[in-house]
Specification:
Elements (H helix, E strand, L loop, with lengths): L1 H10 L5 H5 L1 H7 L5 H20 L2 H12 L4 H8 L3 H25 L1
Helix pairs in contact: 4-7, 5-7, 6-7
Length: 109
């Protein structure tokens, strides 16, 4: 029975790379329809930009290139003069740092 569950889990569809990778870009670039939602979206955009300003320069730069400009990992690696794997790890750490910075901003309010 356990083996059957393992095989069925392997067949489950994993989230697409695009959906995971561009979640932050969607927050920043997607504009809501109502005036209230637009105001809330602008506030959220400003919060994210304030949090980005608190990050280390490498973290902010990799988020800008990979998520906001939606460049492929290969191009991000070339621009940062790093290997593709190093850029992926840097992006992972940058996302974690951004989440912490956003929590600190929310706690300050």
């Amino acid at each position: 029975m356990r083996q059957n569950r393992w095989f069925s889990a392997a067949r489950r569809r994993a989230p697409t790379r695009t959906s995971e990778r561009n979640a932050l870009a969607e927050i920043l670039l997607d504009r809501p329809a109502t005036p209230t939602a637009e105001a809330a979206g602008r506030e959220r955009d400003q919060e994210v930009r304030d949090a980005l300003a608190r990050l280390e320069p490498d973290h902010a730069q990799v988020i800008e290139l990979a998520l906001l400009q939606q460049l492929p990992h290969r191009e991000v690696a070339q621009r940062l003069n790093r290997s593709e794997g190093a850029c992926r790890m840097l992006l992972l750490r940058a996302r974690a740092a951004l989440a912490i910075a956003l929590e600190k901003l929310a706690a300050d309010d």
